[in-house]
Amino acid sequence: MARSVAIIGAGQIGYAAARNFASVGWDVAVYARTIPDWLDPERYRFVAYVAGQEKAPGANVIVDTIAFDEGDIAAYDPDSVDRLIAVSSASVYCDAEGRTLDEAAQNGFPEFAAPITEENPAVAPGSDTYSTRKVRMENCARDLFGDRATILRPCAIHGAWSRHPREWWFAKRMIDGRERIPLLVQGESVFHTTAANMIGQFAVHAGQHALGGTFNVGDANPPSVMEIGGALATLFGREVEFIPVEGTDGVIGRTPWSVPRPFTVSLDRANESGFDVSGGYSASVGPAIEWLTKFDPAGWSDAFPQLAAYPWDMFDYDAEDRFFDQLN
Question: Mean pLDDT over residues 97-108, rounded?
Answer without folding.
Answer: 93
